[in-house]
Design goal:
The chain is mostly helical and 218 residues long. The protein has one domain. It has ten helices and two strands. Helix 5 packs antiparallel against helix 6. The relative contact order is 0.22.
Length: 218
């Protein structure tokens, strides 16, 4: 769950516009789920990516993942409402329980929010991202450590690990070898941090895909 610091070898970048195709993203999901099952960690939020995609319960879910799912599920409902009807719904308290949730310098819950904020900014949903940033960063002052909070502040500006940005880009391109390569790089970010962030990314992409139902410019 730990993540290397922004000053370390894995440089941080601002996301750039890329061509991103929704149909290809959907076609890549089965490969992503299979890759996680074969290669991804059993700890953290990686196993929940399948549940985010399928909506089905995971048989070997542990207590941490069960608690995490409650927050993720409530957040997805809030995000869907915000996309479809505007942002008048209060931010869910259960979702805020993800802040600081999990061990390590960057807890899994914090990494999830990093992925959420980066993905929303990459997709151009700045207003929704701003509401999340306000709620999450406020609670991060008391619920998490300085290192993790610094990562979250970077994510609020659309900045994150290069491997995460490259994974977002590769998810919308019909190139399995490229996707496999960036997932290998993502796997090297901390113990589970890369996958925890990807869970946030997939949560956003799935929600926006359901809302738009067409190719999404990133």
């Amino acid at each position: 769950m730990d993540k290397i610091r922004p000053s370390d070898e894995d440089r941080y970048i601002q996301s750039d516009p890329i061509g991103w195709d929704l149909k290809v993203f959907q076609q890549n999901l089965p490969f992503l789920i299979e890759y996680i099952a074969e290669t991804g960690p059993r700890e953290g939020l990686a196993p929940l990516i399948e549940r985010i995609v399928s909506g089905e319960e995971i048989s070997n879910e542990d207590a941490f993942q069960t608690i995490s799912w409650e927050g993720i599920s409530d957040f997805r409902n809030w995000l869907s409402h915000s996309l479809n009807q505007g942002g008048n719904l209060d931010f869910p308290a259960n979702a805020l329980q993800l802040v600081g949730l999990g061990p390590g310098l960057t807890p899994s819950g914090d990494d999830f929010w990093c992925g959420v904020m980066i993905a929303l900014r990459a997709l151009g949903h700045f207003e929704i991202s701003g509401k999340i940033e306000g709620a999450v960063l406020y609670h991060a002052k008391e619920r998490t450590n300085k290192i993790s909070r610094a990562h979250m502040e970077c994510a609020a500006n659309g900045q994150g690990a290069q491997a995460l940005h490259e994974t977002i880009a590769a998810m919308g391109v019909a190139d399995e070898a490229r996707l496999r390569s960036v997932l290998r790089a993502l796997n090297k970010i901390g113990h589970t941090s890369g996958w925890d962030s990807l869970a946030g990314v997939v949560c956003v992409l799935e929600s926006v895909a359901s809302w738009k139902g067409r190719p999404v410019p990133v």
